[in-house]
## 1
Amino acid sequence: MTIPSAIHPLKIPFEIIDPTGASVPRFVYAYLIYGEEITLIDSGVASSERIIFDHLRETGRSPEEISRLILTHAHPDHMGAARAVKEASGCSVACHPADKGWIEDAGQQLADRPVPGFWDLVAGSVGVDEELVDGDRIDLGGGQDLEVIHTPGHSSGSISLWMAEGGALFSADAIPLARGMPIYDDVLSSVRSIQRLRGIEGVRVLLSAWDEPRFGEEARRIMDEGLRHLQRIHAVVIRAAGSAPSPDKMEICRRTVQELGLPEAMANPLNCRSFISSLRHLDRSDLLRG
Ligand SMILES: [Zn+2]
């Protein structure tokens, strides 16, 4: 199986600063969709426009042909270069209303969700021209369209995009990798969002932001693994909260990290935010049912 020829995945490398101050190599995928006009799904971190524009020129297209930038959510590695892309191309910027505030005011995003090295990853705020909600269809021309699927959990305004023609599902950060650190605002919403994506018939390729393209059965396996991973974390957090001598959130986080066998440095505020969301669902020991 192959990726539909109109879709150009761009793997963008960057670095983050971990809680010990060390630099950690990461990557994020952005996607160009070629048609009469060009649609860009996510912009990558600050300065990623160079990689995006180089690819356009190498393939005989130009940055000015980007008519729309869809931001799957507000996080730095998705909106970091959005302002530069918009300035160079004159494109419109679209996102879900629940993440719009953090895109239009990056300083507020940093205040609400302190990511180390934030301003190395984000070149600035960008104005949003179009709000996308569940069920919206984005016409790509040539008989192709993208359906917007609201997949909250990773962030409240996270969206996935379904291109039925070609069976391509763009899931951004909605599906955590079993080997990775899950980042989410709400564990139950994350589970429900993945279950919804898992129910889509005809997925031939899963195009996420933090994984290689996954085809056919493998795409479904990745979704199942993501679900099991969230359930395991949820069970561990509930146990850790029960055995902690005080309801201190960082202490619950430390115990969770320990029991999951993760490096101690993972007991940081960003991951704590994810873990603690399980405490809102203490009445549900099995998130995958119901
Ligand atoms: Zn994200």
## 2
Amino acid sequence: MAAERPLPNLWHATAPSAPDTRPLVGDVTVDVAVIGGGFTGLSAALHLAEKGASVAVAEARMIGFGGSGRNVGLVNAGMWTKPDDLVATLGKEAGDRLLSELGNGPALVFDLVAKHDISCEAVRNGTLHMAIGDEGLKDIRNREAQWKKRGAPVEILAAPQARTISGAEGFSGALLDRRAGTIQPLAYARGLARAAMAAGAKSTRKHLSWQPNARATSGN
Ligand SMILES: Cc1cc2nc3c(=O)[nH]c(=O)nc-3n(C[C@H](O)[C@H](O)[C@H](O)COP(=O)(O)OP(=O)(O)OC[C@H]3O[C@@H](n4cnc5c(N)ncnc54)[C@H](O)[C@@H]3O)c2cc1C
């Protein structure tokens, strides 16, 4: 089976090569079959394999083919939706839990990068939420207050500081979130796949992947 050709984008031009994967031949029996080799499936496969489960990942195209290999690379600690709005929508218990998971998200990602020595241009200097005009400033001040009452290390930068730190003109301020950072997303996805394979997994391109201790139920 021919390998997928790299996509014509920056991430494919600069990522370390993809792990060696092969087409599924025959059937396999595993504890958990994961469909999709993006961040979600790869992280699930890694954590399951580390706990001793047999895992197979089915990827239709190639590791990181979806949003995981094409996104901006921001490792955010929250969503565009403001914290209070999330709680209003989900209720206090689920909302607070989601906010806590989101807030801890960057630590999880950067810990995985360090633990598995994933080469993905990881930088944890925080991220900036830029404000345009008075309305934008009001919006990030509101966002800042909502995060601060939850103990998050966020701060407002005034316009001159926002300009200096971003190199961009025309913003009325910025919200700096020190929990966050950036990665090369395709490189991270490929690194997660490598880490899962190193945890006992076996990998295939197009259709099935890795399974420590899997039992083949039929063979071609
Ligand atoms: C333009 C853009 C920018 C973004 N920027 C950011 C950002 O900066 N920071 C951030 O945190 N998030 C960002 N996101 C969101 C982020 O990319 C997604 O949340 C994330 O990639 C979701 O990962 P996933 O593993 O759930 O899905 P995907 O990455 O989409 O992975 C799904 C995988 O499943 C495979 N698949 C689908 N169907 C099947 C099937 N039937 N059988 C086998 N395999 C199948 C696909 O080929 C794909 O590889 C951005 C998204 C977009 C679109």
